Amino acid sequence: MTTSVRRRFAFTIGANVARAALSFMTGMLLARALGPESFGRMAFLLGTFLAIRQLLDLGSSTAFYTFMSQRQQSPRHVAGFFLWLGLQFTLVLIVVGFIFPAGWVDFIWHGEHRDQVLLAFAAAFMQNSVWPVVQQIGESRRLTLKVQSMGAAIACMHLLVVLMLWSMSELAVYAVFIAILFEYLIAAVVMLKWLSQSRPAVPMEIAGEVEREVEPLWRNYARYCAPLVPYSWIGFAYEFADRWLLQNYGGSVQQAYYAVSAQFASVALIATTSILNIFWKEIAEAHYRGDHERMRTLYRQISRTLFLVGAIIAGFLSPWSAELLRLFLSNAYANGAATLAVMFLYPLHQSLGQIGGTMMYATERVMLSVVVGILFMSLSIGVTYFVLAPADARVPGLGLASMGLALKMVALQFFQANTVAFIIARLWKWPFDWAFQPVGMLGCLGCGWLTHAVVTAAVGTSLPLPAVMVLGGLLYVVAVTAFVYAMPWLTGLTRTELVSNVSTVWHRTFAGFKPA
């Protein structure tokens, strides 16, 4: 990676660690205060509208960021995309608010009132449709500092609001939705104002060129998004089926177990979420310039490094699943320990899948990505029913509830991520890079379970649980550091490069780094 990319990555890591920590604390507070039943209902509503977002988006957001990353676009282009978002929002309000009969709303959202459903939609749309576009605009202009700082500020504000509602005994699902809606609305307005002030003026000759290319640009949108339309339909069915079938066959409590497990597992995705937009920008630009060697270097190093980061985090946390639930939540969530242990493995190949998908989108290989995605999502819907449906259903299943959904996610993500990686290797005639996966995953898990067994056997219950986990963590850091130092190729770097990069990230993140 170049110095510029490394600096932006270092700052983004620090900002995302802060944001993830705040979001995690908020999630745990909500899960504990609301209880499994109400927290599961909230997770179900937000999850269904994440699925509906795919149905509405039709791949336009990926096209938007790809074109914004390739070169500077006109204000009309940006304004047109926000108009498109407004049309999506209005359509759902009309359909769900006025056209759907009450019986449909009751069936689809399992007894939730229409007002609550619409409030959940508004909150989910602002958080997952509007705000990501604002982030993409900032990242496409390399304004990483402002984008990531605002993200951390939103997470901090949300935690404070939830704490205030909890202290006033007013914490409820509808109140959380209202808070999310206004937090992201205010942040989007403020961020857009900052971006307009920070954006350098477009030279007249460039502005004229962009203006002349408005019509071809929108034809490019049609070309880019056309294969994504069926992908969006299948993606909606895939996401919605997971949430709806779990709610139907498992209920709100199992929904809560899965939602809590997914939130814990997201800790292992901090590095991936930090680098993804930066990686997209750099790959799109390198591809536009025909610099395939830079693409290869970035893809190889980032894939290996992010997989290893996820494996290191999962290796430590997975053995402590039961203890984590007791520590952060309560015995009400104790039965979700097995689900949590499995879900800690999901981010490993999810990170590879996201990097591979970004590679496809940034290089405009949309059709290949669509074909692979449709294949695995279609398969996933059937597998989801099989693992969730009870044995006495008309078409019998395994009845594994949240545990079954977690197993399905991990297994299918493994196959899909490696299929995409294999296709990328063939497209650019690179070697299929796979050996780092089993070595990194098994090595980190081995370090984790070994240190867990040693600490629990040596200390037992003589120390408080947090102290036992800290002791286990220290021992794990020593073990996994020795493991990575012995096999630096797992990161795609030499030992010298690894030590140098770790030192740079540490100083840039924790020593007041200010990007140029």
Describe the protein:
The chain is an all-alpha fold. The chain has one domain. The protein has 21 helices and no strands. The chain has helices spanning 3-57, 60-70, 75-99, 102-108, 114-140, 144-167, 173-198, 204-212, 214-225, 228-249, 251-265, 270-289, 292-317, 321-328, 337-343, 346-362, 366-388, 401-427, 436-459, 465-486, 495-510. The longest helix has 55 residues, at 3-57. The radius of gyration is 23 Å and the shape is globular. The chain starts with a helix and ends in a 6-residue tail after the last helix. The model is unreliable at 200-214 and 512-516 (pLDDT under 50).
Q: Quick one: biggest sheet?
A: none
- Low-confidence runs (pLDDT<50, min 5 residues)? 200-214, 512-516
- Secondary structure: number of strands: 0
Portion of residues in helices? over 70%
Number of domains: 1
Class derived from helix and strand content: mainly alpha
Determine the strand fraction and express it as a percent band: under 5%
Calculate Rg over CA atoms.
Answer: 23 Å
